[in-house]
Backbone:
């Protein structure tokens, strides 16, 4: 068994309106940051998982991302798995 | 020395726990760390007969802080009236006072500040402020049914202040909405003096049968002490002493507390269920100074001792020192003292609600708090030493500015060219404009009790299974307190009571939060001393005992002291909620009258501030008259004679009439025979003890007779109807225009957009 | 009428729903804990509003995995009337018992206000006795009530007469300014194809007594008891 | 002027309480996903920025991340800038 670091990124699908992104965008332009466009807000869920191998870990991650961490009607997900290099932090 | 306190502390910790340590070895840095003077340190060493170790010193520091120990205010608070026929639990006895409302029911309520944490992290500071005051209420065994928020910020033209305001509003809504307690009222006031030091006061109200009132005691030798809820982190270590440091932003150390309203909701439900089981001896929330203050206070109430094994405390982070565990302010934690042998029943309940709990100690029959880690006794202190913080009375000196502001002469002011322009400017200004952009983000109806939500003089809730209702309002008027501390504070009480009266409720009890600058400045201490006298004066006259409250001092940034801001939270009772009254005009043809003086004074008015840029004058209140006025209004409402009642406050008669017209979406025609009165005094003058009422024309004789009976003048000033507001030939406002200006004013200011006019 | 109100960790309109159903509507009402799995025997199942599991991740995302949702699915296919209010609607969407998903309100912030609703169909057990010419008034209180569905889904909803309530103005017009949260087509409530599962953002249980500002919510309870 | 793709990741500081992470973690274990620990929830804000050079873009991104997209009292941020390779997605 090894411990893997996992980062799951969840984004709204491109054709879905993103109220948060729009709000950030208008806040930015109100504050004078110009030239900024297509602001989209997403989620990042990071955790550690104990599994026999990276493949096994990936399978679990895929499953839980698809079922719980994202909603397929409006969102897409992506994940990255890595072995912890050290045990600090 | 820009170090995080835990780290700084750990070095000195060794030094202090060294048995060869003598009093002189404590460094100034350590003393500053625990916000303690050297003479206090020496006093502690005398009390203990030895030098305190680090953990002990931290515990003393927290409990002797203003926030927990009321060092500077305790002698003053003792002068407040706290007794009355309806008082079931008086001020200071438990976490909140309890008031009898009939039918075997009690209301528990209290207001508390979270100013300094909100200055550092406004969203979480405000959210955890709400969480904290909710815990004070359900600790009493009550179900929380309402929240109110009283807010003060610096000028909104400054982006930092806009950010603070938006984040605070967001934090309050986030917490209250999620736990499912409606936010039904509050205040929002802008003044330059709050620049860099916003005020965030939150009030919570709960209800319960008398028989369920629960005490926060740790009693009964051998009874287990259980810690329920969140794991303990390094959050807010030094929060309690932090509240007495003058510059919170710079001294922000430790970890900012992040609230978890979901967890709080589980705590509310599980604790109320646990109380029902009968296996709970005492329940105490963990607030400022965390485990230290809750264990000490609970044991102190029963005269017991308490022994804590802090190795059993579940942690969120590694490496916590005993000092940090004892002082952590991690949110959403409760201390439950169980009946020995019935722990399992309680564990079953908490477990079902998905909450973690640990037995972390037991009640003892001595009078010490003992903290154990491993085999080591980390602290042993007689509890009475911790709860009897030394009190201080500072030199008092009447502020120099008073003579100058009080000698204000209205003759030097020219009346405005355009009364209409002036009226619109006032109606769109942040302090007067509608607060709906704030309270629209608050759930005001969850709980199915809200009869009158935000937007009236006071909110009204029905009391399920009875005919009764309760009315609630928070009020403060710092400018008046600034101009005359004793009178201004009395006016705040009077206004809170008057607001409640305008709904048809009898004011029965009050809570208060004293937000002031640094008590070591003699002129600030004068404001505090005088304001407390003023609150006492008014509460005695209006028969509304104080059931509890909170003190927040050192509200300043740089040299700038905030305006003295006592906030009053008032509870009113309606025997029959169906007889309630609201502020909106109702029918064409109804008549309008003013109870009390038709015109006000310019002193301290919003008009003087906005149109003339002046903070000046010497306000006045006749408390005996105020009481008669309130009695008259109450009788008029209970007799069913009124269509509406609205208290005249900021912006004077014009704003009062405008608000009632907007609420009813109907115009008015005023006819006032006011010779010898300046037009600005007539239309924008302020002053206490005035209520605008409306009624059917045929009721005038009865209305007048009741007013007469109470020796209160009632003056008819106009008739309701049409879509315009005709101000007696002086100026006219169009209802549509007025509504837009009033509705948009605050939203525009808060968003930072420049208004069109 | 026998009704039950589900209780999830973080539900906060459970008591309000219970009160409205038992006191205002006269239903024999019970709470059902989220760990139960058998929901048979009720004439109405209410999934109440609130912040189940703190609304973390997405509102309703975690609650939909609670054991009780197995019972809800079973009853949904049996035809038992099920109403999800606010968070309950969100849970039904996450569970796939209703189509679509919820986004944050367009203003991003939480929004509480009384809204006006137009009843789009009376062919449901919840609306069968509602007079469509009468507009309903009830409060909304949510941060994520911005209903989203793809064009295809909307077309299907329309073709199958599954849109039950729309936000409208006082004249009954569905306009941009009468839409409080950005919902597509002003949708406030929808039902499933078999018409026994209703999800709606507005709170009928908070509009079931005159003293609370209105009784339009009782029209739903009346339809339900009439239908049985 | 060129257009750069920016992704700003905002995480709660390690010692700060993360209610969202804690709730997800207990939901996962209730759902039977075992061996998962240290769940932390973060934010991802993605946008495009028009700037004269990558350095200029970086400067702006840094500024707005620090002040607007993250709250330095409780959060840390990190960003990545890249030139759009294509204009799909
Ligand atoms: N921060 C707030 N939160 C909730 N309600 C608020 C807030 N500020 C103002 N209100 C509401 O707006 C209305 C007007 O407030 P205010 O002008 O302070 O009333 P008054 O002068 O009668 O005390 C009141 O109903 C009050 O409860
Ligand atoms: Mg008022």
Residues:
């Amino acid at each position: 068994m090894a411990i893997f670091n996992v980062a799951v990124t969840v984004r709204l699908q491109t054709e879905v309106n993103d109220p948060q992104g729009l709000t950030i965008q208008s806040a930015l332009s109100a504050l004078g940051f110009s030239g900024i466009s297509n602001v989209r807000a997403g989620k990042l869920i990071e955790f550690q998982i104990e599994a026999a191998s990276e493949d096994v870990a990936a399978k679990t991650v895929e499953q839980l991302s698809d079922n719980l961490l994202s909603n397929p009607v409006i969102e897409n997900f992506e994940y990255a798995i890595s072995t912890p290099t050290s045990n600090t932090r | 020395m820009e170090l995080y306190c835990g780290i700084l502390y750990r070095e000195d910790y060794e030094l202090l726990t060294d048995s060869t340590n003598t009093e002189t070895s404590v460094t100034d840095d350590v003393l500053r760390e625990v916000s303690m003077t050297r003479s206090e340190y020496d006093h502690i060493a005398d009390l203990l007969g030895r030098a305190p170790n680090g953990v002990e010193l931290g515990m003393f520091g927290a409990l002797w802080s203003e926030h927990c120990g009321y060092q500077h205010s305790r002698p003053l608070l003792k002068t407040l009236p706290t007794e009355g026929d309806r008082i079931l639990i008086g001020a200071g006895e438990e976490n909140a006072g309890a008031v009898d409302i009939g039918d075997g029911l009690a209301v528990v309520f209290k207001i508390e500040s979270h100013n300094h944490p909100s200055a550092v992290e406004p969203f979480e500071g405000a959210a955890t402020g709400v969480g904290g005051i909710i815990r004070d209420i359900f600790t009493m065994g009550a179900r929380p049914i309402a929240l109110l928020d009283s807010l003060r910020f610096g000028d909104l033209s400054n982006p930092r202040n806009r950010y603070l305001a938006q984040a605070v509003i967001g934090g309050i809504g986030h917490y209250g909405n999620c736990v499912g307690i409606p936010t039904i009222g509050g205040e929002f006031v802008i003044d330059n003096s709050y620049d860099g030091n916003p005020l965030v006061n939150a009030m919570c109200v709960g209800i319960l049968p008398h028989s369920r009132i629960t005490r926060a005691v740790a009693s009964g030798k051998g009874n287990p002490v259980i810690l329920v809820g969140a794991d303990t982190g390094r959050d807010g270590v030094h929060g309690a002493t932090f509240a007495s440091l003058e510059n919170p932003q710079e001294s922000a150390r430790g970890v900012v507390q992040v609230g978890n309203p979901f967890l709080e909701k589980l705590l509310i439900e599980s604790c109320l269920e646990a109380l029902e089981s009968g296996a709970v001896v005492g329940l105490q929330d963990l607030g400022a100074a965390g485990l230290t203050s809750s264990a000490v206070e609970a044991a102190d109430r029963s005269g017991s001792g308490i022994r804590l094994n802090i190795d059993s405390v579940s942690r969120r982070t590694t490496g916590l020192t005993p000092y940090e565990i004892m002082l952590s302010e991690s949110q959403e934690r409760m201390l439950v003292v169980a009946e020995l042998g019935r722990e399992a029943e309680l564990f079953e309940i908490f477990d079902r609600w998905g909450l973690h709990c640990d037995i972390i100690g037991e009640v003892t029959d001595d009078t010490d708090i003992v903290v154990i880690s491993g085999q080591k006794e980390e602290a042993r202190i007689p509890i009475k030493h911790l709860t009897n913080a030394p009190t201080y009375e500072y030199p008092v000196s009447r502020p120099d500015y008073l003579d100058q502001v009080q000698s204000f002469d209205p003759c030097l002011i020219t009346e405005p060219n355009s009364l209409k322009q002036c009226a619109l400017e006032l109606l769109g200004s942040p302090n007067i404009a509608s607060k709906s952009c704030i309270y629209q983000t608050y759930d005001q109806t969850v709980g199915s009790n809200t009869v009158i939500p935000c937007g009236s003089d006071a909110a009204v809730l029905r009391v399920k299974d009875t005919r009764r209702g309760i009315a609630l309002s928070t009020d403060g008027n710092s400018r008046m307190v600034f101009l005359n501390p004793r009178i201004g504070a009395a006016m705040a009480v009077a206004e809170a009571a008057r607001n409640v009266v305008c709904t048809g409720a009898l004011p029965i009890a009050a809570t208060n939060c004293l937000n002031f600058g640094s008590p070591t400045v003699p002129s600030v201490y004068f404001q505090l001393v005088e304001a407390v006298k003023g609150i006492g004066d008014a509460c005695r006259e209006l028969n509304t005992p104080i059931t509890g409250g909170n003190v927040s001092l050192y509200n300043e940034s740089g040299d700038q002291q905030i305006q003295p801001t006592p906030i009053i939270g008032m509870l009113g009772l309606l025997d029959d909620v169906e007889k309630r009254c609201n502020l909106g005009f109702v029918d064409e043809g109804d008549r309008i009258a003013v109870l009390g003086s038709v015109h006000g004074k310019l002193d301290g008015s919003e008009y003087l501030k906005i149109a003339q840029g002046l903070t000046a004058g010497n306000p006045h209140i006749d408390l005996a008259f105020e009481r008669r006025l309130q009695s008259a209004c109450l009788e008029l409402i209970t007799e069913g004679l009124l269509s509406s009642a609205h208290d005249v406050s900021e912006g004077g008669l014009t704003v009062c009439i405008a608000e009632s017209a907007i609420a009813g979406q109907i115009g008015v025609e005023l006819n006032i025979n006011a010779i010898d009165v300046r037009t600005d005094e007539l239309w924008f003058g302020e002053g206490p003890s005035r209520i605008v009422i409306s009624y059917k024309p045929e009721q005038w004789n009865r209305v007048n007779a009741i007013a007469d009976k109470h020796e209160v003048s009632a003056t008819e000033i106009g008739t309701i109807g049409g879509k315009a507001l005709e101000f007696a030939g002086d100026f006219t406002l169009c209802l549509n225009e007025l509504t837009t200006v009033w509705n948009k004013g605050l939203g525009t200011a808060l968003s930072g957009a420049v208004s069109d006019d | 009428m026998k009704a039950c109100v589900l209780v999830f960790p973080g539900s906060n309109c459970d008591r309000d729903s219970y009160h409205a159903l038992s006191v205002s509507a006269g239903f024999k009402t019970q709470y059902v804990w989220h760990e139960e799995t058998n929901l048979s025997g009720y004439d109405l199942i209410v999934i109440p509003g609130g912040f189940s599991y703190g609304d973390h991740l997405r509102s309703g995302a975690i609650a939909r995995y609670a054991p009780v949702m197995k019972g809800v699915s079973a009853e949904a296919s049996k035809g038992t009337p099920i109403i999800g209010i606010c968070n309950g609607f969100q849970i039904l969407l996450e569970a796939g018992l209703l189509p679509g998903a919820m986004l944050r309100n367009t203003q991003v912030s939480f929004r509480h206000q009384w809204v006006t609703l137009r009843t789009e169909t009376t062919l449901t057990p919840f609306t069968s006795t509602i007079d469509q010419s009468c507009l309903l008034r009830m409060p909304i209180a949510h941060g994520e009530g911005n209903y989203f569905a793809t064009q295809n889904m909307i077309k299907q909803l329309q073709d199958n007469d599954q849109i039950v309530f729309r936000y409208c103005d006082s004249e009954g017009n569905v306009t941009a300014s009468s839409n409080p949260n950005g919902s597509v087509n002003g949708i406030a409530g929808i039902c499933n194809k078999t018409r026994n599962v209703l999800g709606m953002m507005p709170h009928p249980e908070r509009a079931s007594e005159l003293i609370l500002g209105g009784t339009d919510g009782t029209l739903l309870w009346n339809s339900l008891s009439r239908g049985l």
